[in-house]
Amino acid sequence: MADVLANWQCVQARIRQAAARVGRLPEDIHVVAVTKGVAIERVQPLVEVGIRAVGENRVQEAIAKYESAAWRDEIEWHFIGHLQRNKVRQCLSFADLVHSVDSLRLLAEIDRRAAALELDEIKVLLQVNVSGEKSKFGFAPEEVPRALEQACEHKRVLIQGLMTIAPYEEDPEDTRPYFRQLRMLGEELSSKGFPRFEMKYLSMGMTNDFEIAVEEGANLLRIGTAIFGERQL
User: Fold this and answer.
1) Do 193 and 227 touch, CB atoms closer than 8 A?
2) Environment class of residue 43 by beta-carbon count within 10 Å: exposed (0-12), middle (13-18) or buried (19+)?
3) What is the CATH class of 4-228?
4) Does the reported pTM lie above 0.90?
5) Which long-range contacts (CB under 8 A, 24 or more apart) does 64-73 make?
6) Which of 174, 168, 204 is nearest to 186 (CA)?
7) Ranges of each domain in the chain
8) Does residue 119 sit in helix, strand or coil?
9) What is the pLDDT of residues 165-224, one digit of tens each?
10) Residue 111 in 3-state DSSP?
11) What integer pLDDT is reported at residue 233 of this predicted model?
């Protein structure tokens, strides 16, 4: 079984090195530990050393962990998987940040459910399909400005940035154009003053490519395997 704490220290060292290469402060870069398929007992040591957030891909698995974790209020719970509209109510019961809003219909459903649950503000990111792969969800980059214009009618949703999933590449350097494009899109959108939008988070980079993502401006990294090892998913 993987040594979670040793892996965590290695990930932190790699982040510091990547940040130093581009003159960034490592404390501005946060890891969302992807805990899909990970027993809750293996997550607790990370909480004890100060991890900021865990990320779950499946609503039911997330709820089970959230309800059983004695330390649940010590960290943020992020939902990072594809969110179906019929699972929004359950997702809002635990998620501090939803990374994967990939359509206006989903955004509207989040707003509707938040109103029904009397929740004042739901924080989300828009998922952008920068690579254009048909297997991936998300807005095309050119669709995002229009989405932000329409999103302003949803008063209980605050869009706090953008997320993408780069294609898997044998050479992580090949992911750089996708990360750079998302960063540049975020910078462009930030200058336009859309209501209900702030460019606070750039969620990109996973185990295979997070160092490139750091060099291109990511401040939320979604890392699972590099921390927990290979899992049966």
Assistant:
1) no
2) buried
3) alpha beta
4) yes
5) 65/35, 65/40, 66/93, 66/94, 68/40, 69/40, 69/43, 69/44, 71/44, 71/47
6) 204
7) 4-228
8) coil
9) 999 999 999 999 999 999 999 999 999 989 999 999 999 999 999 999 999 999 999 999
10) helix
11) 58
